[in-house]
Amino acid sequence: MPKQIYEIKDFLLTARRKDARSVKIKRSKDVVKFKVRCSKYLYTLCVFDAEKANKLKQSLPPGSVPLKKILFDHR
């Protein structure tokens, strides 16, 4: 069962956890979704501001969690 995170600080703490396996970034027309896979849950943070999304991407822990980018076509 997935869980949604509403605060950027909580998402960064979750991404730095020991059981975090990967972070996926999904971009659509209106929103950028950051998804972190932990052992029990998939945590999702939705960011509606592109500037905040870029800052968040840069502040993810480097090297500790594999980063995957997934782009959607806007049909």
Automatic annotation (TrEMBL):
GO biological process terms held by the UniProt record: translation
Pfam family, one: Ribosomal_L38e
Domain of life, per lineage: Eukaryota
Gene3D superfamilies: 3.30.720.90
InterPro entries: Ribosomal_eL38, Ribosomal_eL38_sf
GO CC annotations, alphabetized: ribonucleoprotein complex; ribosome
Keyword terms of this UniProt record: Ribonucleoprotein, Ribosomal protein
Family: Belongs to the eukaryotic ribosomal protein eL38 family.
Protein name according to UniProt: 60S ribosomal protein L38
Native species: Zea mays
